[in-house]
């Protein structure tokens, strides 16, 4: 099985990163990166407000899509909202791809199955 790398993402100050979430906000974004070949998009981002799914992006469609009815209306008052959001998420997709490749190099994972190391095998006397 390929390794999944994900992190909660919440809006926050400009220096905010997905690995430094702001606690106790009612909105959350989850970004997930996965190596190619797992049968999933390589990058997925989902947004939630108070536990309700509000939007979705994945690397197969490369589009930000509203998932809540009220979010679909955001484009009426701000016609560029979905294009801006899509560009931001495409940037995160690219960053996750680079970061995942960096991790694979650091942990000598060029391919094959990922997972915890196997326990040592007992030696015969």
UniProtKB/TrEMBL annotation:
Keywords: Disulfide bond, Glycoprotein, Immunity, Membrane, MHC I, Signal, Transmembrane, Transmembrane helix. Gene3D superfamilies: MHC class I-like antigen recognition-like (3.30.500.10). It is a single-pass type I membrane protein. Residues 1-20, 106-125 are annotated as: Disordered. One of its GO terms (biological process) is antigen processing and presentation of peptide antigen via MHC class I. It is found in: Membrane. Its main location: membrane. Residues 28-111 form the MHC class I-like antigen recognition-like domain. The keyword Isomerase does not apply. GO terms for cellular component: external side of plasma membrane; extracellular space; MHC class I protein complex. The keyword Glycoprotein applies. It comes from the Eukaryota. Residues 116-125 have a biased composition (Pro residues). PANTHER family: MAJOR HISTOCOMPATIBILITY COMPLEX CLASS I-RELATED GENE PROTEIN, MHC CLASS I-RELATED. This is MHC class I-like antigen recognition-like domain-containing protein. It comes from Pelusios castaneus (West African mud turtle).
């Amino acid at each position: 099985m390929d390794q999944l790398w994900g992190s909660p993402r919440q809006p926050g100050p400009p220096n905010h990163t997905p690995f430094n979430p702001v606690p106790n906000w009612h909105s959350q974004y989850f970004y997930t990166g996965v190596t190619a070949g797992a049968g999933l998009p390589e990058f997925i981002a989902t947004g939630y407000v108070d536990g309700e799914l509000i939007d979705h992006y994945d690397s197969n469609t490369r589009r930000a899509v509203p998932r809540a009815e009220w979010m679909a209306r955001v484009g009426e008052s701000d016609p560029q909202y979905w294009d801006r959001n899509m560009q931001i998420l495409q940037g995160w997709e690219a960053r996750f791809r680079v970061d995942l490749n960096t991790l694979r190099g650091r942990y000598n994972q060029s391919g094959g199955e990922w997972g915890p190391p196997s326990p040592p095998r007992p030696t015969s006397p």
